[in-house]
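Quick one - first record:
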Amino acid sequence: MADADACQREVLGLHQFFEDWFAGRIDAGPDSFARCTNVLAPEFTLINPDGERTDRPDLLERLQAAHGHAGHTYFHIRIADVESRRLADGLWLVTYQEWQETDGFITARWSSAILREATGPDNGLTWVHVQETWIAAEDEPEHEPAATAQ
């Protein structure tokens, strides 16, 4: 059974995968990409900060094509202020800040994710839905983040 710690580990772990994938630090093969495909539920949807809705197949296609796109730049993802709330048996709402830096240019977003308990994935959770909202980069918290994908 998942708990708040498992939710935090999953958020950190998936974003570490994204950082490594975009930077080209991991192999582009299906075994590496399984870290992503294994945790996105078949009905997964993402609504990005610009309001664009993307379903699982389109997102996976975009992610696969983006392998190594940040390989010649400094690219880092930092996760902060992770909070998890159990909504019902097997269902969690997780909110967190995601800060991305590419060669000194910073973007930030609040994300709300619905995670569902599942057998198979490392942390016992699959991602069902993510909604992102832009944060002004100058609003970056001065305190140490709750968690960082490194």
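second record:
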Amino acid sequence: MGAGKTTVGRCLARHLGKDFIDSDDEIQRRTGVSIPHIFEVEGEEGFRRREASVIHDLLQRNDIVLATGGGAVLGAESRVEMRRNGTVIYLKSSVHDLWQRTRHDRNRPLLQTADPRAKLQQLLEQREPLYSEVADLVVHTSKQGVQTLVQELMRKLAALSKPASLPPGA
């Protein structure tokens, strides 16, 4: 949440000549209501069921860059599907950076608490091992601009697609 998935994903998709899809936007399109409304009516569990279903559907498509919500990794099935159907990129950020980017955003239901910064810390501690488990690439966002991040991702993606070479005699 606040790592830049949508912004970086949209730019990366342009560079790769692929369609960009944000799973949260797709959930809102399909339901006709906002994410906070879904949380209010169905709770986080209801939202996660919808999210897993949408991600499953979207992962059947080709030539897309998909930005998922930060909690998409909570579902074991979603993690397996993401790994099986694409290259997973973890945009890693510090709690401080995430807080700076989200502190004025009222459209994030999980941060509508008395201490949103502590909630970010808790979420990151819970999700970090899952992000690391599923990620093919990890990129630290810190203070880098979007273009710099996308160029780094393009280099890393190119390196992933190169066939591994064995040293002579191996």
